[in-house]
Amino acid sequence: MNILHLVPVILLTLLMTFQANYYFDAVLGKSRRKPRRTIYFVVFVLLNFFYLATRLPSFLSTLLALIFIFTLAQSYRVELKLKIMFTVMYAALLTTVNIISVYVFSVIDGIDYLKVPVYGPEAIWLFSKVLLLGCSIMFVVIPIVHLIAKRRSFRVHHRSYLLFLIVTAITVYQINVISIYSEKNIFYIFSVLGSLFLNVFIVYVFDNIVEKAHLAHENEQLQRQMDYQDANYEKTVHSFKSIKSIIHDINQQFLYIEECVKRNELAAATEHMHVTMNTIEHAYQRVNSGNLVIDALVTNTLTVGQANGIRIDTRINLHSQHIGIERYDLCVVLGNILDNAVEASKKVRVAEDRYIVVSIHSTASALVIQIMNHTAQPATDLKSDKTDSEFHGFGLTNISRICSKYGGHMTIEQGQGSFNNMVVLPYNTNNV
User: Where do the structural domains in the chain lie, given as residue ranges?
Assistant: First the structure.
């Protein structure tokens, strides 16, 4: 290969590398990049250089292009099906714009380059012009695709991805058939432009399908989360009723004790007081902070923990029984944090490590909830291991939402086999 051919190939390789990186950043997101991407770029550049510098049969050329494009897609932390889908999409778009570029230069030069072979320096010059124009068009198309295809974390059925790939592959096939067998006139360029528009439109339709499915799924999960919070709230209501019942019973006992004192039957009064105190101790909640929401939810957690062999240490110190947080919101936050801690502790195999520390304290202006528990393995993705993990994922989302509502924050710290979740909620002055 002479220097005349080598220089344009090197420059075009670097340009296509930059463009492919720009494309995948747009459709997959910069935040999804892997920390070490050098090896992917090296493989991409080498295979791309070989692809541009050599003449291969059509099938092998297409296969090689898909391989080095997919190599760069591998440098992103996304699902495999997304990598495959957008690799094929990029190849289809690149094929389309290159066909458009060939037609443009065919019109300008008055030569049908798809049928008339070109050799020597003229071929190198034409090759460079076509790729440069194609890359220029791609730099216009990529932002459009980026605006339409905003990536979401919702999972779509595999059939949707398969249909997407089939339609894109058919589009590439049609473009190649048109370029070989069609007469090169204004209708030809409209056909190719239509194919380019079709690919972008497919992304738009696919994204809308994903969005609607996502909203329907999210609505279902939020309804389940609402039912879950209602259950927590019912625990608080039950505590109200239990306390009222206890107070009513105590009043009756006091009447009897009062009568014993009046009759100077002190022994009977003392004995009945002891019986009453023992009854109250067994009937009253095990946690008595003075705040009914905290008492109900922490007591329930103690009961669940005891049933599952989980030791729970409670450290509750409230500045005042009244907390400037709406009861429903407090149920959401505390209920979800405690539930997640119990869930994680159930997974710990060593009985001695099934341990939860519940620390709740308040000041005159804020409530601080800190829950520490042991975990069977590092919680790298912060997802529940339950079969309804998506449901519990919404629990963390709701905690964050309530933190934002009160101007507070949630902090998560992960250690070796431990998980520490702290929530700070400044009081809502309207509730104080």
Answer: 3-221, 289-432
